[in-house]
């Protein structure tokens, strides 16, 4: 299946996955979450002393082979300590691209992009070196534009070590710890660099959560600004509008439920609510990336894989969804925000974006919001790039941030 279909539908399917799977109920108990096979490369392994390290502390670094997709840039993989949604220490990774003409203490852009997958090979650091055309980084043109300006670019594996697809808050924490770690690596020369963040759709979720969490989770980071586009701000609202009809991208629906169960095994017991067919499908995609997941779920629906409707009234399961809904989070960014979306986006509730923007404005956030004339979700991402780059460039220069609150 064409990967472009994934990106056109990502904003909705990521949240729809939660919504559809919340309508399933409890059946015979199973062994619990099905986690991905661990990456065989020891750079990804969790050290035994992980609990003794601080969030963002560097665990290991590795100089990676140069990439033809990013000519002239060095590539460094950084492993660091982060925290999962249950407050437990985890090992995470980010890949830092450094342009050869970078000035001392030049800007650092942490770019969070969409990761569609449940397997460790779907992580950005792996996709950078894949020969599979379906897994290659499609944002290379935009990232090269940033590198050409002398910006270093960090690409965090923001789904974490268990590929917890659908866990938006986790992505924000890993993003912040990835910035901490990148700045702490002496050879990268980023200690005094201005930092900004950007991302769209699923990557926008991680970026927006990082911006909102920063005052509490990483108050020492002075981030110049965050550009967030096409962000599904409220998972609960998406749940209210979901149905049980067959969907061409239902594989992503199932994948997000699996990812949430991995991140919240005691509160989102999805496997217990799957029938035999659902468990078999779960097994087949547990290490899959985009195309594998789509193929298994194409034209399927939640009713084919579920036993009952019990979880829809389960307080813990609903709380998991609420805790990953940025509109419902009481924190606000202390950095300037550039937010862009389609005024008629058919995949995400635009009013949830507007409500979040109003709350930010009322709290004094310097917010520049742009509604673009685009008929669908992913076209908006491309149309917004020129304004995003211009806005980020001004933040790196230290110009006063505009606001149209």
UniProtKB/TrEMBL annotation:
User: What domain of life is recorded for the organism?
Assistant: Bacteria
Asked whether the UniProt record includes Signal among its keywords, one would answer yes
Which Pfam families does the annotation name? LIP
Q: Is Signal set as a keyword in this record?
A: yes
InterPro entries per UniProt: AB_hydrolase_fold, Lipase_secreted
GO MF annotation, one: triacylglycerol lipase activity
User: Which first-to-last residue range defines the signal peptide?
Assistant: 1-31
> SUPFAM superfamilies attached here?
alpha/beta-Hydrolases
BP-aspect Gene Ontology terms:
lipid catabolic process
Q: Which UniProt keywords apply?
A: Signal
What's the name of the protein?
Lipase
Q: Which organism is it from?
A: Nocardia bovistercoris
> According to the entry, what is the taxonomic lineage of the organism?
Bacteria, Bacillati, Actinomycetota, Actinomycetes, Mycobacteriales
